[in-house]
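thought: fold this chain, then report.
action: predict
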Amino acid sequence: MFEIFIKFLKIIFLISIFYYLYNNNYFDLSLFVNFVKNPLLNFILIFFTAFTIFIGGYRWHIILKSFDVKISLFKTLKIHYIASFFNNVLFGTIGGDVLKVHYILKHSKKNKLKNNLTIFIDRIFGFLGLSFLGLFSVIIIIIQSDQIKFLYYSLYIALTTIVFFIFLFYITRKKSYFLKIKYFYLKLYKKFVLAFILSIIIFFIVHYSTFLISEYIFKFNISLNEIFFSNFMSTIVSAVPITPGGIGLGEITFAITNKFFFDNLLNNLANVIIYLRVIDFIVSLPSLYFYLVYKNEKNEI
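observation:
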């Protein structure tokens, strides 16, 4: 009963967000008219989105192999593809991870903790790639706006953080658990570097797709750096498991970030994120076929 009540509150919260967005002219239904009018660009966006799903599945496969989980690339991609759909419909943008846990444990029941850890590490690499692009966009924006003093402060904070981690490394370097982590990293650092690079590529494509929607479909004339930072903030907030797929949270964050950080006082800004969600949904929808076939036949995926 309590869970039903919580879900009801989340639905009310989602409706309230879209009421706020609509009432403040952050979105309208014209986005669907624009969708019909841009078939070529839609095809490009669908290709980009499908490519990011492939790269994400390949990144997870690299991590699985690093943990000696014996699974084919095709099977990994199939699981990741199914999870991409549920990321769009379950609460937060990480709902598909629940299915990943189910399928990977069904595939290999040995060392369940290690199998689940691959999903967590995959998310960490995703966050690192997203944060790298977010930080890079912030630095570019600061330099372009001549806020050099703020940049110095940011570098000072970054330097302090680095010194802290060096100190932490020094005092824990002889601990057994640290030595195990160190050995594991040194053994597989090339694969982890590749996973990090793949994460950067994924979010670069996502951010650039958002820029294409903003620039060529809605004609908002927002700079690439501003889109990168706004979409970084939108993606972070969307991961909060309050609404299905982070719907509403990403839209309102994108609109408010553009308003308060860059003075982009434009109508229907949230349409950009909604448009991108429609593309994501179209690309991930066919994965339901694999999910339903597997569920009905009770076979291995």
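thought: worth noting. The chain has a mean pLDDT of 82.
final: tokens above.
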